[in-house]
Amino acid sequence: MSEENVIKVVELTKKFGAFLAVDAISFEVKAGEIFGFLGANGAGKTTAMKMLIGISKPSSGEASVAGFDVYTQTELIKKNIGYMSQKFALYDDLTVRENITFFGGIYGLSRSTIKEKIKVLVADLKLENIIDQLVGALPLGWKQKLSFSVSLLHDPKIVFLDEPTGGVDPITRRQFWEMIYHAADKGTTIFVTTHYMDEAEYCDRVSIMVNGKIEAMDRPKRLKEQYEASNLNEVFLQLARNSNPE
Amino acid sequence: MGISLDNISKSYKGFKAIQNISFEVKPGELFGIIGPDGAGKTTLFRILTTLLVADSGTASVAGMDVVKDYIGIRKSVGYMPGKFSLYQDLTVEENLQFFATIFGTTLEENYDLIKDIYEQIEPFKTRRAGKLSGGMKQKLALCCALIHKPKVLFLDEPTTGVDPVSRKEFWDMLKRLQEKEITILVSTPYMDEAALCDRVALMQDGQLLEIDSPKHIVQKYPKAVYEIGAKERHKLIQVLRDFPNLYSVYPFGEFVHYTDKRTDLEIPELENYLKSKGLSEIYIGLTEPTIEDVFMELARK
């Protein structure tokens, strides 16, 4: 982790009519940090993330991602970040190779770079036997690991992971986190949401959103001390229990 | 009037979704099917709710055969599928009335059963179902599944993608329903929810790994589990993998869970090994295994 802040957010706000979905949140994320972005359903996580990845314009406040402004440089943000979620993953009716080639092309990589990337991925993830299989036929855990690798194809500074491990079996879930650690070790910043509170403990720092505001933000260990809790689930329950997402 | 399965199998185009599944759920039991996506949970639910016919084996629900007496079963079970399946363009109230009418009953007749849950969504009763938040949709779906006072309730992944607070509320509701003598079969990919069931079946890739009470399942775990912490967490896992006596190592929240090939682990020996690899702030202590430890041990066999 370096001292450079790759995400800077100041009083970022999003209103839908009179409803404050995101209410003046402020935080910074350092290069190579694993930052867990937690909150109850309806707390405003997705809305906040959409602003950071340049697909939703904030109502007020400031933010920069990978050095680019979320109001005026959204196309540059998209080029410099990776994104994956359970909903937006790979194309089921393309093979693994076709998916990698397609997304590599989207990110503007040259044919030779894409070929090189495929070679590396085949070796790292042991894809020899499945590289020419349709993605739709693969188990969910495989899809998610591949999808993560694809989101890193263009060597982004930051990767946004929106509930990447939902429904994935416990062993694969842990393998997935090792991939996250590996990417972070190489300097990629990880911005991740999850409903698994044990995974939240794998993060360097977490923030917990309640009703549009960030109510707590610190290292997991410090949060547990502060809230006198034995795990982050208890911290989360204390903070979010009395909120009303309606 | 519980549930009984005897050697149930189902394949789709050669893919074995579930294989030779047998178990019994006692009347009034809160029984959990615990497993990740692809375990076969939904296939099992669809067979038991008579929406799918098994390739082989027999099953009965509330004393009725799932093939011969499917009409009887449909009248006496409630089913909440994993995917929200109510009418999005009907209001909360209209959805409830619709399901009550279909089952030849009224909202008033069984109101005591759904009262606790319905009161939480009543302020939004004129809102269209499609406009409700995730938590509210889930509560409405549960009300609709209960409106005809079913003997057996099937809940397919009711808490998937739901935050920890709403998950806890949902389980509290299930506990209260159980007191009303409804047999409940519930599936979940969250291992920690297993502890809230009377008994659970652990499933992966179409097969049963284990059936027992959550307490017995963890008691049967054959090894001592140590939790180990260090400042450099990623490195800790890598270093432990190279330890000659390692049996398994998995991250668990703040710590990693470690098991040793030998029956007696010399803690100082392991600690010295970790120190020699440059790790700091080392903590090693004995801990209780969890359902997830058991699941991973069974799944790797």
From TrEMBL, chain A:
Keyword Transport tagged: yes
Domain ABC transporter residue range list: 7-236
Q: What keywords appear on the UniProt entry? A: ATP-binding, Membrane, Nucleotide-binding, Transmembrane, Transmembrane helix, Transport
The terms under GO molecular function for this entry are:
ATP binding; ATP hydrolysis activity
> Keyword Nucleotide-binding: yes or no?
yes
Where found, per UniProt? Membrane
Membrane-protein topology: Multi-pass membrane protein
Q: Which domain of life is it from?
A: Bacteria
One GO location term (cellular component): membrane
- Signal peptide region: none
> One short Pfam family name for this protein?
ABC_tran
UniProt-listed PANTHER family: ABC TRANSPORTER G FAMILY MEMBER 20 ISOFORM X1 (PTHR43038:SF3), ATP-BINDING CASSETTE, SUB-FAMILY H, MEMBER 1 (PTHR43038)
This protein's name = ABC transporter domain-containing protein
What organism, scientifically named, is this protein from?
A: Cyclobacterium qasimii
From TrEMBL, chain B:
Q: What positions does the domain ABC transporter occupy?
A: 3-230
| Keyword Nucleotide-binding attached | yes
SMART domains the record matches: AAA
**Keywords attached to this entry:** ATP-binding, Nucleotide-binding
Q: Classify the source by domain of life.
A: Bacteria
Q: What Pfam families would the database entry show?
A: ABC_tran (PF00005)
Asked if the keyword tRNA processing belongs to this entry, the reply reads no
GO molecular function of the protein, one example?
ATP binding
Record's PANTHER family?
A: ABC TRANSPORTER G FAMILY MEMBER 20 ISOFORM X1, ATP-BINDING CASSETTE, SUB-FAMILY H, MEMBER 1
State the protein's name. ABC transporter domain-containing protein
Q: Which organism is it from?
A: Cyclobacterium qasimii
